[in-house]
């Protein structure tokens, strides 16, 4: 039988880290190494860097899950945050496991844009929509990520006759509607796009491909 101190150590959460996409921010951790740790309950706290007191996250207090949504708690996107997690099992509490410092504006991943393709006989019109944050305007619509960063759209064309993997950059800029002209009728083309953030030199993943035959 594990002694209390051993149990405390063996159920302590591991690898506490923030994951964030478009400011949708969750805290993830892994259970301790003891086999019993899979039955542990978890308690999450958070604070802004420099504050002395930790805040309890009520919805993540005594949970069996290994993930906790902190989107609302990290909404001041320029502030650096910390979070910490402890585990409890059979009346024994582990010590706290601390996350690294997390600053949403600097560290959130930008999602891919939405792409819509309309074709005529020799051109493709591409409509682009930036990903949206979880934060809402007063009227209720979600605020696009372009409000928080200087973001560029990068649009690539794939000529399926030539090579499925060969993407050619045909546009970089802020226009939401672009036209690609002088294409060959009867050829299958696919469009993919991503968001690019010059200030941090970050790119999003590619959008799903939208294909059309002229």
Automatic annotation (TrEMBL):
Entry coiled-coil feature ranges: none
UniProt entry tagged with the keyword Glycosyltransferase: no
Domain Fibronectin type-III: 7-96
Keyword Cell wall biogenesis/degradation: no
Entries under InterPro entries matching the protein: FN3_dom, FN3_sf, Ig-like_fold, Interferon/interleukin_rcp_dom, Type-II_Cytokine-TF_Rcpt
Gene Ontology terms: cellular component: extracellular region; plasma membrane
GO molecular function: cytokine receptor activity
Record localization: Secreted
Keyword annotations: Disulfide bond, Receptor, Repeat, Secreted, Signal
Residue ranges constituting the Interferon/interleukin receptor domain according to the UniProt record: 108-212
First-listed, main subcellular location of the protein, grouped into a coarse class: secreted
UniProt-listed SUPFAM superfamilies: Fibronectin type III
UniProt family annotation: Belongs to the type II cytokine receptor family.
Protein name: Interleukin-22 receptor subunit alpha-2
